[in-house]
């Protein structure tokens, strides 16, 4: 008998165990109910699924390939066999497009004409601006001021695509504050605007809907591994910001009891430093942020603690509620990767394989370096390469001291 | 019936205003801005100027229902070191000044404090209950139990977008009053009160006898007067907070606050 998928065992509507729910202003409840109704219908509608599949084939470039990275495995992962799921090769350069195309199609089905989004690294904003251009929707993207500076290239990309980019100057001026601002916009404009939330958090139905749009990552990868390697991996590794690429690649493997699921968080300067984004270690405890009950970096007054990570996409004080559930139930494990470890992995993959990973994805690679050394040469590791490093060239070049003073002040 | 006996301070205040054939004035200020003592002095100042009910805000790092003015005050209060428990001191002071109060808070600080512990401490400090902008009744089982146990009001919000079914269930879950959001949007002054507020109150009256108080966007005596024409209470936040945020010093802030509160109090009494 096959096991029931863990998530189906979750009790009431929109809960993963105790986590999830819908902690939002009443003004948004009707829109969330409308969204839930449309996405439930759409996900059972062959016409919708066919349209999305065709977009993924002819626009996104799916299925994305898997790439065995032998030198990286031999030299950095204790000889383990490492296989990358190449979401970096998707149009716009990351996994984010999977979710965005789905939500953009839903936006049209709901008869709305405008989309808004929050973005950290800028990848979700770029994907949303792209889908908006493709489908003729107005688009506004909120981005923390700190992130507009460290991901300036993506700001320009969004503007070139016709989106309005609004820098957010409140709070920590990063992803969390961009989410706050997107919610404020949404409350005021919900009648004609859909909020394309970029990860598996937020109020129900976002965590489930976004996961379902990304589930294709694991579905493809599992079939590709069986086809090309004749077996399932020993572990699946992914970085976890809000947790969408991780939920996407994990979900199809949840029932495969022998496959370890490992999420890697932004460890910043290390768990003891107080400067990190590790929601599953240190100060984080269950609480409510941005509409969901989940693990939150918070102080003993329930105030959110600012996260820190070299990676803008992982620099977020909360995490998707399904990850909280997978963690508490023991089905998945989560480890922090420090900025330094992530940048070491970034360099290692670049030098051994000719692939520049996104700094977010480099956290998953750093996880593979640790787990590979632990499991040895017989291990097969599947790593979510959630995005490409083009957007991070400036940050990485600065980190490794590759810019001379004259170049660096551009 | 016990409901009469348990009637909260705010319910009694609303009933008295109704007896005087006027709407009540509910004034919001966050505790701790610019510092705890001054914020409490400001609340007492509002009461002396004619505010019937004080809505005491708990500053929170991520106030996603608030516009720039209240965000600025919340950030300032947190930077000045306000603690969640300061809200109980403020509630005692407001009660001491002869007014009633509700605490307005995002849900996470209450969750962290402990829902029952918060209810217990609020009840013993003389607060009437809670206004919860990001907690809908659907998620409020713990709070409904705690507010019943400690005899507290629970004020949920309704909005122009609320469906007919939700108007029924949400107003039925409220005690004390129902907070009717006058518009789709966050807190902040608006140049006019749109028609959505009156329409929402009309729809809600068909399904509930609980008093209906209207908030969001009211900033002048004239607007307060207009809203008082169809609501049981007029809730003003940003316009009052702005007097403190924009003042050159605390003294000037309190003077400007008294003037604004007086203007609004005249608005509901005209
Ligand atoms: C390439 C890449 N990977 C991962 C993430 C983190 O998001 P999530 O945890 O939702 O996959 C981001 C977010 O911006 C990203 O751009």
UniProtKB/TrEMBL annotation, chain A:
Protein name per the record: Tryptophan synthase beta chain
Pathway field: Amino-acid biosynthesis; L-tryptophan biosynthesis; L-tryptophan from chorismate: step 5/5
UniProt keyword Nucleus present: no
One Gene Ontology CC term in the entry: cytoplasm
GO-annotated molecular function: tryptophan synthase activity
Membrane-crossing segments per the record: none
UniProt keyword list: Amino-acid biosynthesis, Aromatic amino acid biosynthesis, Lyase, Pyridoxal phosphate, Tryptophan biosynthesis
Function noted in UniProt: The beta subunit is responsible for the synthesis of L-tryptophan from indole and L-serine.
Organism in which the protein naturally occurs: Flexivirga caeni
PROSITE patterns assigned to the protein according to its UniProt record, in alphabetical order: TRP_SYNTHASE_BETA
Subunit: Tetramer of two alpha and two beta chains.
Sites of N6-(pyridoxal phosphate)lysine modification: 96
Catalytic activity, reaction form: (1S,2R)-1-C-(indol-3-yl)glycerol 3-phosphate + L-serine = D-glyceraldehyde 3-phosphate + L-tryptophan + H2O
EC number of the protein: 4.2.1.20
Family (UniProt): Belongs to the TrpB family.
Domain Tryptophan synthase beta chain-like PALP intervals: 67-387
From TrEMBL, chain B:
First-level EC class: lyase
Domain of life of the source: Bacteria
Positions annotated as active site in the UniProt record: 55 (proton acceptor), 66 (proton acceptor)
Keyword Amino-acid biosynthesis: yes
GO cellular component: a single term: cytosol
GO molecular function: tryptophan synthase activity
Its job: The alpha subunit is responsible for the aldol cleavage of indoleglycerol phosphate to indole and glyceraldehyde 3-phosphate.
Subunit structure: Tetramer of two alpha and two beta chains.
The protein's name in its UniProt record: Tryptophan synthase alpha chain
């Amino acid at each position: 008998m096959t096991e029931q998928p863990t998530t189906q065992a979750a009790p009431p509507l929109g809960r993963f165990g105790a986590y999830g729910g819908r902690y939002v202003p009443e003004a948004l409840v009707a829109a969330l109910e409308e969204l839930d109704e449309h996405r439930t219908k759409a996900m059972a509608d062959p016409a919708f699924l066919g349209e999305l599949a065709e977009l993924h084939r002819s626009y996104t470039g799916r299925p994305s390939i898997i790439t065995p990275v032998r030198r990286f495995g031999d030299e950095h992962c204790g000889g383990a066999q490492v296989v990358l799921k190449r979401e970096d090769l998707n149009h716009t350069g990351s996994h984010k497009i999977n979710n965005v195309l789905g939500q953009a199609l839903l936006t049209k089905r709901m008869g709305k004409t405008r989309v808004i989004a929050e973005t950290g690294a800028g990848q979700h904003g770029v994907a949303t601006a792209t889908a908006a251009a493709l489908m003729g929707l107005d688009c506004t993207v909120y981005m923390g001021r700190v992130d507009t500076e460290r991901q300036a290239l993506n700001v320009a990309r969004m503007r070139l695509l016709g989106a309005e980019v609004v820098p957010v100057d409140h709070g920590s001026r990063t992803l969390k504050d961009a989410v706050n601002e997107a919610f404020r916009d949404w409350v005021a404009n919900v009648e004609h605007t859909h909020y394309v939330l970029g990860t598996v958090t937020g109020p129900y139905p976002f965590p489930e809907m976004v996961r379902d749009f990304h589930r294709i990552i694991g579905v493809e990868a599992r079939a590709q591994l069986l086809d090309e390697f004749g077996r399932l991996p020993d572990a699946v590794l992914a970085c976890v910001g809000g947790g969408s690429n991780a939920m996407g690649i994990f979900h199809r493997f949840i029932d495969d009891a022998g496959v370890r699921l490992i999420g890697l968080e932004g460890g910043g300067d290390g768990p003891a430093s107080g400067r990190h984004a590790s929601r599953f270690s240190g100060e984080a405890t269950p609480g409510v942020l941005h509409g969901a009950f989940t693990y939150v970096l918070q102080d003993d007054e329930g105030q959110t603690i600012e996260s820190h990570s070299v990676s803008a996409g992982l620099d977020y004080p909360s995490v998707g509620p399904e990850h909280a559930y997978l963690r508490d139930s023991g089905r998945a494990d989560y480890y922090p990767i420090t900025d330094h470890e992530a940048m070491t992995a970034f360099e290692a993959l670049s030098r051994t394989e000719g692939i520049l990973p996104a700094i977010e994805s480099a956290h998953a690679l750093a996880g593979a370096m640790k787990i590979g050394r632990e499991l040895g040469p017989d291990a097969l590791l599947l790593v979510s390469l959630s995005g490409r490093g083009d957007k991070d060239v400036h940050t990485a070049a600065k980190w490794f001291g590759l810019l001379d003073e004259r170049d660096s002040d551009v | 019936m016990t409901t009469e006996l348990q009637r909260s301070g705010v319910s009694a205040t609303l009933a008295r205003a109704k007896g005087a054939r006027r709407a009540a004035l509910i004034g919001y200020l966050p505790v701790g801005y610019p510092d705890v003592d001054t914020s409490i002095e400001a609340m007492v100042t509002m009461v002396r100027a004619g505010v019937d009910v004080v809505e005491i805000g708990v500053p929170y790092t991520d106030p996603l229902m608030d516009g720039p003015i209240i965000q600025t005050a919340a950030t300032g209060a947190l930077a000045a070191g306000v603690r969640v428990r300061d809200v109980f001191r403020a509630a005692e002071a407001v009660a001491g000044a002869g007014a009633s109060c509700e605490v307005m808070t995002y849900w996470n600080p209450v969750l962290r404090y402990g829902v029952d512990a918060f209810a217990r401490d609020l009840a013993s400090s003389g607060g009437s209950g809670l206004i919860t902008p990001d907690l809908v009744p659907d998620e409020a089982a713990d709070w409904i139990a705690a507010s019943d146990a400690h005899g507290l009001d629970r004020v949920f919000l309704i909005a122009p977008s609320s469906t007919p079914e939700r108007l029924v269930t949400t107003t039925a879950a409220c005690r004390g009053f129902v907070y009717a959001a006058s518009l789709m949007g966050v807190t902040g002054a608006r140049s006019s009160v749109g028609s959505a507020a009156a329409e929402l109150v009309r729809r809600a009256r068909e399904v509930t006898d609980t008093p209906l108080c209207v908030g969001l966007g009211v900033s002048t005596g004239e607007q307060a007067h207009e809203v008082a024409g169809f609501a049981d209470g007029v809730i003003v936040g940003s316009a009052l907070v702005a007097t403190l945020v924009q003042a050159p010093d605390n003294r000037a802030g309190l003077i400007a606050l008294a003037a604004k509160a007086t203007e609004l109090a005249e608005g509901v009494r005209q």
